[in-house]
Amino acid sequence: MRSKIRITVIKKLSARELYGDSQPCQWKIEEICPKFEVGDVYVIPEDGSCPSGFCSWAFADLQRDITHLRFGGDYPMCEEPGVAVQCCTDGMRPVFFKLERESDDSAKSVPL
Predict the structure, then answer these.
(1) What does the angle CA 11 – CA 13 – CA 19 come to, to the nearest 5 degrees?
(2) What contacts 46, CB < 8 A, 6 or more positions away?
(3) pLDDT in tens, 12-61
(4) How far, in whole angstroms, is CA 86 from its chain's centroid?
(5) Phi/psi-derived region of residue 4, left when phi > 0, alpha when psi is between -120 and 50, beta in every other case
(6) Rg (CA), the chain
(7) DSSP 21
């Protein structure tokens, strides 16, 4: 059973928040990710494709967890079945996402 997955942006960090004044390299672009705003919501359709307007780099980073949730998997570190929290791998300005399997009473939960 494949499920739709809802992705909610829950936090954004800047290089300054991560490293203070001792950043590991000079950053030529914006200090905080301009692609997302906290509270933005996207839905991964049943076919698992990247939703319109979603960052393709972040989607690639989240795809393993999206797939696991889509096919009924759960994560033992999350008390709520069908939920995961993950971030993109941008080491200078990461964005954190909450992934939620849309409830479907017929979906079977499979532990990780």
Answers:
(1) 150
(2) 2, 3, 4, 70
(3) 998 888 888 777 777 666 789 999 999 999 999 878 999 999 999 999 99
(4) 5
(5) beta
(6) 15
(7) T
- Tell me the one-letter amino acid at 72: G
The domain locations on the chain are 5-101
CA 44 to chain centre: 11
Which pTM value belongs to this model? 0.85
Helix spans in the chain (H): 15-19, 56-70
- Residue 8's SS3 state is strand
Q: Compute the Cα dihedral for 64, 65, 68, 69 and give only its sign.
A: negative
CB 108, CB 40: distance < 8 Å = no
Query: How far does Cα 13 stand from its chain's mean position?
Result: 14
